[in-house]
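ARCHIVE CARD
Drawer: 12
Card no.: 0347
Subject: one protein chain, sequence and derived structure
Cross-reference: see card 0346
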Amino acid sequence: MEVIKTKLEGVVIIEPRIFKDARGYFFESFSQKEFNEKVMPINFVQDNESMSSYGVMRGLHYQRMPYTQSKLVRCVKGAVLDVAVDIRKGSPTFGQHVAVELSEDNHRQFFIPRGFAHGFAVLSDVAIFQYKCDNFYAPQADAGIQLLDEALGIDWKIPTAEAILSEKDLKQPLLAEAVLDFDINDKLY
């Protein structure tokens, strides 16, 4: 696998080695050994999957301390625009984001460590999205930032009139009003 660094510390794009022939293709979607060596040592404990239609936007989610999560995400059907936002107080990139298209065609994965909010927008008719987490979901620690916060400057590649958001995501606070308890000195994993 090739690991591509981004402008946000610890946030990386992963491109697998794909072997194609007349039968189709094969690739190793995850290797604990290789991930630990090339990205960071981590222990994933939960896998999740969602299915969404065009225009659905989910996020920007995170879990508050001490239940923070790192996520390794990928799109196995369709295409999404995946986004990570730095919410680490004291970080030189605080409030900045990285966006990457993940699709069934490019097989890319996106690693979002603890200290970052995460969200995605569905660009295809349907998308099946999978992700690994290094901590269990804790509903009492569930938090988020408003996806459409203009201060973030995210181009979701979806016209606002066609965006489909949950009531919960519509009510999330702006970054300037969000409860952020992750500090630049806290561990990313």
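Annotation on reverse: The chain has one domain: 2-177. The two ends are 20 Å apart (CA to CA).
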